[in-house]
Write a structure and sequence with these properties.
The structure holds three protein chains of three kinds. Chain B is α/β, with parallel strands linked by helices. Chain B has ten helices and ten strands. Chain B has a domain of 174 residues: 3-Layer(aba) Sandwich (Rossmann fold). Helix content of chain B is 34%, strand content 25%. In chain B, the strands form two sheets. In chain B, strands 6-7-8-3-9-10 form a six-stranded mixed β-sheet, with helices on both faces. Chain B has a four-stranded antiparallel β-sheet with strand order 2-1-4-5, with helices on one face. By secondary structure, chain C is mainly alpha-helical. Helix content of chain C is 77%, strand content 1%. Chain C has a two-stranded antiparallel ribbon. In chain C, helix 2 packs antiparallel against helix 6, helix 9 runs antiparallel to helix 14 and helix 11 packs across helix 12. Chain C is flat and about 90 Å long. Classes of the chains: A mainly alpha, B alpha/beta, C mainly alpha.
């Protein structure tokens, strides 16, 4: 040891020989503490921005979308005119089915006209066209179905709530104002006043709208009738496929990689592959689905089976990564114990390790499913944007029939010309988020309930 | 249990001034009472060793001396710790200033992933101890010399500190602590991660450091305490059982627990 | 039988095999199962596997191959005279398939009998009328009708042959494996090898997926580059596709939009995500952390379509009305800024949770070392923790960048569809992903460069993100190893 502590002045540098009191912060310390406070504030601001963004996002979705769950109906007595619905007067289903929906529309218009006259409502410029466009074109179809199903109501006056047009509906949701009604080709100021008068007299009511969740999509000029029924079924079918395929395959792959795989190049390649697949843009999976499943294998477009397969491939990395983590968390002592009593490696894994890892596996699977449920881009490429109004039948045939999917339905509605569909899109997102929330809740409960600390 | 505490006896201070004076120190980790009623006076320019079985609170007490326990959320400290007449737990005290005066060396060598030079210059830079590069160079060289490392690293000051051997790393950490010219140097089992040769180098260094600083060293090795320290404090279950000159503690322990520990019956 | 019902039958046979196998194992050991090499269940499984596996494999191969073979055979029967300028062979084939499908439907619904359908000709007024009455319209040309009948016949024969072959194979497997059962038969080892094979197969699926992606991208891209010069694609500055021909398909405007939007998203997300992560790992109490971390991670769980709608309905108009229009930067709600900002929000949790992990991986001893020298926590973060965590954080940012480049729904709804190179962030621009969606949604003609360009764009995107991912993963992995 050749170094020695050099003698000489003990204090070096600016602070000199005298120590300042600890009780008084010197200028430099004050400056440093100010920097510290600033730095901390940056962190708080960053977190605040992130949380505010979340709150604002959710707030706007709920604000814009809650309207979709409420719908305006016209409560005006309708006289089912036998001369119109059954011109031959023989109550024969076939002949009655020949009557066009249009004629039912005129009946609805007449009932509204009658109501206006009876209630002595005076509105300037109220014309025939205003009556006609007051109703949704869905209303006459509903009425027609009703008459064909119950022919005994012909000739009577019935009280059925009829769906109002999206413009009338918009007047009660703040989407349509007197000013906008005046310049809108699809409504008028007179219609606006009429709606006000009817609401005052209780002939127009806005109520909760289950049809939004159960009915299929509707065409461009019937925003008020568009629903999520087909999309929810389509999404459910795809989730079913993902669950049935991705869970066993993912678990099998993880078991092999975690418990059996020798450390060699192939294993390495597989592992790198899985991490990479987890980060491949989802749209690329859509291209794969289009090229491989539709063009090459000849599966039908717009079908849940193709969507399900694509989403399975996308979800697999997520499931594999979480399953491997769960398997890794099972301590080796459990494996040693089972092997020690003469179980085969396979028996050890399936009888002991996998059951213990199961909560983690299920949590990962649910989170993977939730991701798949919200995925949109790949589904656009495999034709799930198609306009589908028929419910697909039950599986397995239904898996090959055209369907929509929840997130795609949202996209679909944003592409419509009528802005009334935006409300529907936000409403659909509320439904989607509700599903996701429920799934994550299940995952959290699973984790809390079965979490094991070794 | 009052009788179990410090065995009262006069300690020969050899005329050295008191640097740290601790009174009725209690430390709680959450519900756990980790340090109970510790009273001790630490002398300037002396190596004081804290010994005791693991979990006895010696490291906890050491970390109180420069308020490192502040970084643990559940730790709570009561009592007075007076450094040169000022209570370091006074509300006005900024731990940052305190730690510049009470440096610390840890169990595992923990050089920053930077160059050797930057490691040593880190403290002087943040505390603004130099006015220019030349002065900083001087501080770094002096600190490295002080840590008996200068000759080994003077040609590779720009290489990363993590590339040194374990013993060199620990001496680098000592140099890093010395560079801020503290008055007290706390060492938390500084040799436990080192091989015997590196240990003897560091021990030799500690002996030299005593000329300039008060050194407090926590060690689990009684031999080490006997080799490097002038004063020894024995902790057991959070109590300071016995405190005195190292020779006295090892040759003539007053408390039966100290004796059992020294003779290897407990530990 | 349809393939589905064949599969059900095979599985039923396998169940029978399982029961028989178990029973036979028991009887072969004269009821004393201790004499068996394996537990009886394994004999059951062994039989079930031999019953189901070969026939299911046959089924799978057959179902995949049948359309290709039938198409080729039928195609060969269509006379060249039927192919005209207005109708390619491909279009005729799809008409043939459509007609065959309608015919099949008519037979299934009992409108016409199998033999009537087989004998159907265009002169057969009675049958066509019957079909028309049921809402099934068959109005093909004569060759198409003939081909359609061929097509049906081929398919019918093929599926009969399949049913026979699959069931025979299943029964043969059942019988053979039952005959093998003896007390010394190592059923467990055999079953376990099958399971092991299945496990390996499943893990190879990851490679198969990657290979599938690469093949589907590369093949179609090659076809595209045969139709369109690659120099014009990679270095062209104009994007004006027109399905009538004469399209200009230069990628640069799309690349520009992609990078510009990603840059804005990262400029927003990286500081916020990083500061949030630093605050959570270095300052926040466990309670605050336990609340804030999950809340921020909610942002990561929100589907991108939600962000897209948020951009379209809320953020776009806000930026236009409060910033862009008053300042005279433009009047478009969809803009680089809109998409970038919303994408930035989406990336915050991505950056923050990755950085959080990485910062937490920095050993506590380094923090202690720095604090013990009297540095403030922020000095510790800036001078010690961030430099130590830098490689990991760079990796996280690269992963975030790869995400931003590949993100689709936010840009589809928020960025606009205008392909242009402009510096103004309030202009609408478009990205690679937007154009992939644009060119591939709706009806596609897979022979035109306007459709095929999407595959070349996809390949570009894939290569870009793959490169980023690999670099990032390597960096992060190295970093983790350093502190493990």
């Amino acid at each position: 040891m050749t170094d020695a502590v050099s003698a000489g002045p003990r204090r070096v540098g600016a602070q000199g020989a005298t120590r300042k009191s600890l009780l008084v912060a010197d200028a430099r310390t004050r400056r440093r503490n100010a920097a510290e406070t600033r730095f901390k504030a940056y962190g708080i601001v960053a977190i605040a921005i992130a949380m505010l963004a979340l709150v604002f996002l959710l707030f706007t979705i709920v604000r814009d979308g809650s309207g979709a769950f409420r719908q305006t109906f016209i409560d005006v007595p309708v006289t089912i005119d036998a001369a119109i619905v059954d011109p031959k007067g023989n109550r024969d289903q076939k002949d009655m089915a020949g009557v066009l929906t249009m004629s039912y529309g005129s009946m609805l218009e007449k009932s509204l006209e009658t109501w206006v006259a009876q209630n002595n409502v005076q509105i300037e410029g109220l014309g025939k066209a205003d009556y006609a466009s007051f109703y949704s074109s869905q209303a006459r179809a509903t009425l027609r179905d009703m008459v064909l199903e119950n022919p005994e109501i012909i000739g009577t006056t019935i009280n059925v709530p009829a769906l109002a047009s999206s413009r009338v509906d918009g007047m009660f949701k703040g989407r349509v104002t007197a000013e906008s009604a005046e310049i809108d080709a699809r409504t008028s100021l007179a219609q606006f006043r009429l709606a006000e008068a009817m609401e005052e007299k209780g002939a127009l009511t806005t109520r909760f709208n289950w049809d939004f969740v159960t009915q299929p999509d509707a065409s461009d000029n019937r925003a008020e009738a568009a629903g999520l029924g087909v999309a929810i079924i389509g999404s459910a079918y795809m989730m079913l496929i993902v669950l049935v395929l991705a869970l066993p395959i993912g678990v099998a792959a993880s078991i092999y990689l975690e418990e059996f795989a020798p450390k060699n190049r192939l294993t390495d390649i597989i592992e790198v592959n899985i991490s990479n697949l987890a980060a491949v843009p989802s749209i690329v999976f859509g291209i794969l689905g289009l090229a491989a499943f539709i063009n090459f294998m000849g599966l039908p477009r717009s079908a849940p089976i193709v969507g399900g397969l694509v989403l399975t491939l996308m979800t697999l990395p997520t499931i594999i990564i979480s399953t491997r983590a769960a398997l890794k968390a099972v301590p080796p002592s459990i494996r040693d114990a089972a092997l020690g009593v003469g179980a085969s490696k396979m028996q050890t894994v399936f009888h002991h390790v996998l059951p213990l890892a199961m909560p983690g596996v299920l949590t990962g699977t649910i989170i993977g499913l939730a991701q798949a449920l919200g995925e949109t881009a790949p589904l656009l490429l495999i034709g799930m944007v198609a306009f589908v109004t028929a419910y697909p039948s039950a599986p397995p045939e239904g898996l090959f029939e055209p369907a929509s999917a929840l997130p795609v339905q949202v996209y679909n509605w944003t592409q419509r010309a009528d802005s009334a569909f935006f409300e529907r899109a936000s409403g659909a997102i509320i439904v989607l988020l509700a599903f996701l929330f429920a799934m994550n809740l299940v995952a959290i409960i699973l984790r809390r309930r079965f979490e094991r600390r070794w | 249990m009052n009788d179990m505490r410090l065995a009262e006896r006069t300690v020969d201070t050899q005329g050295k001034p008191i640097k740290f004076s601790c009174r009725d120190v209690q430390v709680y980790y959450g519900d756990k009472h980790a340090i109970k009623d510790v009273n001790v006076d630490l002398e300037d320019k002396t190596v004081t060793a804290f010994i005791g079985p693991s979990g006895c609170g010696k490291s906890t007490f050491l970390r109180c001396l420069n308020r490192m326990n502040d970084t643990i959320d559940i730790a709570r400290i009561e009592g007075k710790m007076i450094l040169d007449g000022e209570d370091i737990y006074d509300r006005r005290v900024d731990p940052v200033q305190l730690r510049a005066r009470v440096g610390m060396v840890f169990e595992k060598p923990n050089p920053f992933p930077k160059s050797i030079y930057d490691n040593v210059a880190y403290g002087p830079r943040i505390h603004g101890l130099s006015r220019n590069k030349a002065e900083l160079d001087g501080i770094v060289e002096k600190a490295l010399r002080g840590a008996a490392l200068w000759n080994e690293v003077k040609d590779r000051l720009n290489e990363t500190g993590t590339g040194l051997s374990g013993g060199q790393q620990q001496r680098l950490c000592i140099a890093r602590a010395v560079a801020t010219s503290p008055e007290v140097l706390l060492m938390d089992e500084p040799c436990s991660a080192l091989d015997p040769i590196a240990t003897s180098q560091v021990e030799e260094l500690i002996d030299q450091l005593r000329e300039e600083f008060s050194v407090v060293i926590v060690t689990h090795s009684m031999q080490q305490a006997a080799r490097v320290s002038q004063k020894t404090a024995f902790f057991h279950l959070g109590n300071l059982v016995e405190y005195g000159t190292t020779d006295d503690i090892f040759t003539n322990p007053q408390d039966p627990r100290t004796e059992s520990y020294i003779s290897g019956k407990i530990g | 039988m349809s393939p589905f019902w064949i599969m059900v039958t095979i599985l039923a046979l396998a169940l029978v095999g399982y029961i028989l196998g178990r029973r036979r194992a028991g009887s072969s050991a004269a009821g004393d199962i201790r004499k068996l090499h394996s537990r009886p269940t394994y004999y059951g499984w062994n039989t079930a596997i031999w019953t189901a596996l070969p026939s299911l494999l046959l089924l799978l191969v057959w179902v995949l191959a049948q359309p290709l073979i039938v198409d080729r055979a039928v195609n060969g029967n269509i006379p060249d005279s039927a192919v005209s300028d207005s109708q390619t062979r491909g279009q005729i084939m799809s008409e043939v398939q459509g007609t065959a499908f309608e015919l099949g439907r008519a037979v299934n619904e009992g409108i016409v009998s199998q033999s009537e359908a087989r004998a159907l000709s265009l002169d057969d007024a009675a049958t066509t009328e019957k079909l028309a009455a049921a809402g099934i319209e068959i109005t093909p040309s004569a060759p198409v009708l003939e081909a359609a009948k061929d097509y049906r016949a081929f398919n019918l024969n093929a599926s009969r042959a399949l049913t026979g072959a699959a069931l025979v194979l299943a029964l043969a497997g059942l019988a053979w494996s039952l005959s093998q059962i003896k007390p010394g038969y190592r059923a467990r080892n055999i079953v376990e090898s099958f399971v092991r094979g299945f496990l390996i197969l499943c893990s190879l699926l990851a490679i198969a997926t990657t290979v599938g992606i690469v093949l589907s991208l590369v093949f179609e891209s090659i076809r595209f580059f045969q139709l369109y010069p690659w120099q014009d694609f990679f270095f062209g500055t104009e994007w004006t596709p027109s399905f009538g021909g004469g399209s200009k398909l230069g990628m640069l405007p799309l690349l520009w939009g992609t990078l510009y939007i990603s840059l804005i998203a990262l400029l927003f997300a990286v500081p916020i995500g990083l500061f949030a992560a630093i605050y959570m790992s270095e300052y926040a109490t466990p309670r605050v952390r336990g609340f804030v971390k999950p809340v921020i991670e909610v942002l990561a769980g929100i589907p991108t379509i939600v962000y897209g709608l948020f951009a379209l309905v809320t953020v776009g108009p806000l930026i236009r009305d409060w910033i862009a229009a008053p300042a005279g930067f433009g009047n478009s709600a969809s803009s680089v800024m809109t998409a970038g900002l919303v994408m930035g929000i989406m990336l915050i949790p991505f950056v923050s949770s990755l950085s959080d992990d990485i910062i937490n991986a920095v050993p506590q001893s380094l923090r202690d070392g720095s604090l013990g020298l009297g540095s403030t926590p922020s000095e510790t973060v800036r001078n010690v923790i961030l430099p130590a965590a830098l490689p990991g954080i760079v990796g996280a940012i690269l992963l975030a960048a790869s995400r931003a480049i590949g993100e689709t729904m936010i840009v589809v709804l928020g960025a606009g569809a205008m392909a242009r190179i402009s510096g103004n962030p309030f202009d609408a621009m478009t990205t690679i992903t937007v154009k992939i969606v644009g060119q591939l949604t709706g009806d596609n003609d897979f022979a035109s460069p306007e459709t095929l360009v999407a595959f070349a764009l996809g390949l570009t995107l894939f290569v870009m993100t793959l490169a980023l991912n690999i670099v990032a993963l390597v960096i992060v992995r190295k970093y983790r190893e350093q502190y493990e």
